[in-house]
Design a protein that fits this description.
By secondary structure, this protein is mostly helical. It has helices at about 1-25, 45-50, 55-60, 70-75, 80-95, 105-110; strands spanning about 30-35, 40-45. Strands 1-2 form a two-stranded antiparallel sheet.
Length: about 120
């Protein structure tokens, strides 16, 4: 009986720790992404997390760290506009086709030049 109790206790402690780490590692609710000459992109990170429910939808393309997109472009793992063209716009179109509110589909709807 004791070994089972300790095994269950270890599993519960591990799960609690994993959940706490996942909660802390969600990133900022709002972000501003570097958008090149077209201007920066305000990015509602929390809204995307809630809508998608799976971080790997986006983070299979780049790391879960601040500046990851810029770093991936700088070292050649991503090509400029690749994330936007292959991920953002395609997902926004799918959402709209499925009858859900989708995100912007044109450059100027996302990129905002600073005044």
């Amino acid at each position: 009986m004791r070994p089972i109790f300790f095994a269950v206790l270890i599993v519960l402690v591990t799960m609690t720790g994993s959940l706490a780490f996942a909660q802390e590692n969600k990133g900022a609710d709002q972000m501003r992404l570097e958008g090149g000459g077209q201007g920066s992109v305000p990015f509602p990170h929390h809204r995307h997390q809630t809508a998608l429910g799976d971080c790997l939808v986006c983070h299979s393309f780049f790391d879960q760290e601040k500046g990851a997109i810029a770093d991936a472009i700088a070292d050649g793992r991503l090509v400029k506009k690749q994330v936007m063209n292959k991920l953002c716009i395609q997902c926004h179109r799918r959402q709209k086709q499925d009858g859900n509110p989708g995100g912007p589909l044109t450059c100027t709807q996302c990129h905002k030049k600073e005044s």
